[in-house]
Structures are given as C-alpha cells and as structure tokens.
Design brief:
By secondary structure, the protein is an all-alpha fold. The protein is built from 8 helices and no strands. The longest helix has 20 residues.
Length: 165
C-alpha cells in the first residue's frame, strides 16, 4: 500500500486471506505480521479492525454463549504459548483485542481509536492477528473441527478465497 492511500476492498480481502491462509497452514505468526504490515497505513486501525470482525466470527464458530462460555483465564497461554508477552502494555493490548472481538460478536462496537491512540506503537493489527489465531484454536477445540476447515469457513463468510494447497 502506498503512503497516504486509504485501504481498499482489495486490501481488506488481502488482509483476511493472509491471516486465514497463514493460520490454516500453520505459518509462523511473525511471518504473517510481516506480510500484513505493508497493508497497515500509519496511524490507522486497518487491518486490525477488519481482523477483529473475523475474530468475532471465529468466536461465534466456537459456539460460545452465556450458557457455554469460553474459559478466558489463561486463554493466550493455552492457545498461543509461543507468543511471550514481556510488558504490561503487551498484556493490555492482548486482552483488549480478545475482548474487543467479544464485544463485536455481541453487537457492541468497541471504541478502537479511543483505545489505540494511547498505545506507543501502531500495532492493533498484530494483536488482532493473535486474537484471531487464539479464537480459531478455541473453535477447533470446542467443535472438533480442523483449523484449516474453520479458516476456510471464515474466509467464505467474508467472500475471500483461500489458496489451494
């Protein structure tokens, strides 16, 4: 994406494709972050807000409800132990992305700009990618479905075609 250019619908599609195809194939998350970074305009929530929409859909696929809640405590450590958080700010950002997706699923729009304006780094998309990975793993665990199958379902839901292997 060139500087000063607003994200397009193709950028949206590319962000979803990169994230879901990468998660489905078991790609290293740091590689996915590097692939998503060129889509991220400075001082913008894109593609973080797009990924959070997909995260909300992954949470829905898990069957989470008030009667059948997802156990939140330790969720990141259980489902994404390779991502080591070293600061309070990183913990906060991780919790924010996981919680924002739950808000979106419940029909509440989180105030993304009000939150991320205080972050020293411009990385909502990174934390959204981590949340997406976590909730896809939660959905796989709760439903018994394969991660790749869930990624394909989410892609279809968003009108995105994943590459065939």
């Amino acid at each position: 994406m060139t500087a000063g250019k607003a994200p397009t619908s193709q950028d949206r599609t590319n962000a979803i494709r990169i994230a879901l195809a990468g998660i489905a194939s078991g790609a290293d998350l740091s590689d996915l972050v590097r692939q998503l970074e060129p889509l991220h305009p400075k001082n913008d929530t894109f593609p973080g807000e797009v990924l959070l929409e997909v995260v909300a859909d992954a949470l829905e696929l898990s069957g989470a409800s008030r009667r059948h809640p997802v156990e939140y405590e330790g969720i990141r450590e259980r489902h994404l132990p390779e991502v080591e958080l070293r600061s309070k700010a990183q913990h906060h950002k991780s919790h924010y992305a996981l919680g924002a997706a739950a808000m979106i699923r419940a029909g509440v729009r989180p105030a993304l700009l009000d939150e991320v304006i205080w972050w020293d780094t411009n990385d909502l998309f990174v934390w959204s990618l981590y949340a997406l990975t976590i909730y896809i793993y939660v959905a796989a665990e709760r439903t018994g479905a394969d991660v790749g199958v869930l990624c394909e379902r989410l892609a279809t839901q968003h009108g995105v075609e994943l590459p065939r292997e």
